[in-house]
């Protein structure tokens, strides 16, 4: 199977901050035309402008991954799609199972799982037509194991993990590979602040005393590395943690 000629196109969801923005930068540098999607238009436009000014190809497309009609409109607007990075997502709350808000659980499932489902379903025909398509799912180590206070997020990320694993089984034999990247602790600007609803003190505690949590760039470089392997090489599942984190619950803190 050969790849279509011309500049390959990579769609990145949640490209307005953190891992998504860093991934868009890495893929643009690797020669992809990047389609930056997120709900915050000002941020993705600014990043698209920055990348185009640097000589790369980039454009912004406002998208809420939970809005299927909007996702279908994105798919219809693309001439081609070679790579899809399902990155939009995150955590809401850190309450126990006994006290968690079901609305938070619902929202996390909606964005992390159904959002990934919508975008993957909508772009799969174009990814297949490319002759060498790649679906990336940014899950989490919370998609492989759990921790106290993490059940809602872990349940959603386990859902994303199962989606990736099942899709890989179902489309084997087609020219599309499914790559799951499962990061552990990554210090991004917004992840923990969103989780704790703007409480920056609580958010800071997540990383307290940890010498070097992963950065968005660490994850983005890993995504770019996996995506730029030859088309027959499938980085099936890659777990990425900072050296100071041995498991979801075993973190070395110098306090
Ligand atoms: P951020 O909070 O910085 O980024 C989340 C991104 O998702 C934003 O760009 C946001 O954009 C977008 N997003 C959220 N909801 C929607 C929606 N409904 N539709 C479209 N886009 C949406 O977090 P990170 O960069 O840290 O995380 C990125 C991904 O990596 C997430 O899936 C997260 O769960 C996962 N992850 C993060 C880890 C960490 O420790 N930080 C560890 C492991 C995994 P906007 O608000 O503009 O729509």
UniProtKB/TrEMBL annotation:
SMART domains: PKS_KR. It comes from the Bacteria. Keywords: Oxidoreductase. Residues 8-189 form the Ketoreductase domain. Belongs to the short-chain dehydrogenases/reductases (SDR) family. This is SDR family oxidoreductase.
């Amino acid at each position: 199977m050969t790849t279509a000629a011309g500049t390959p196109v990579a769609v990145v969801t949640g490209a307005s901050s953190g891992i998504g923005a860093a991934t868009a930068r890495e893929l643009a540098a690797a020669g992809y035309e990047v389609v930056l999607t997120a709900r915050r238009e000002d941020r993705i436009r600014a990043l698209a402008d920055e990348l185009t000014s640097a000589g790369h190809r980039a454009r912004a497309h406002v998208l809420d991954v939970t809005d299927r009609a909007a996702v279908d409109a994105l798919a219809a607007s693309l001439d081609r799609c070679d790579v899809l990075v399902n990155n939009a997502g995150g955590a809401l709350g850190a309450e126990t199972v006994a006290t968690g808000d079901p609305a938070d659980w619902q929202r996390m499932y909606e964005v992390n799982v159904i959002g990934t489902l919508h975008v993957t379903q909508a772009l799969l025909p174009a990814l297949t037509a490319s002759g060498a398509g790649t679906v990336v799912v940014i899950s989490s180590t919370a998609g492989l194991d759990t921790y106290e206070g993490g059940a809602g997020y872990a349940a959603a990320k386990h859902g994303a993990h199962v989606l990736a694993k099942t899709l890989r089984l179902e489309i084997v034999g087609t020219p599309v590979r499914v790559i799951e990247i499962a990061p552990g602790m990554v210090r991004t600007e917004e992840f923990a602040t969103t989780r704790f609803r703007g409480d920056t003190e609580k958010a800071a505690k997540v990383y307290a005393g940890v010498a070097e949590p992963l950065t968005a760039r660490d994850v983005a470089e890993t995504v770019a590395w996996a995506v730029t392997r030859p088309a027959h090489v499938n980085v099936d599942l890659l777990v990425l943690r900072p050296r100071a984190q041995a498991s979801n619950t075993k973190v070395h803190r110098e306090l």
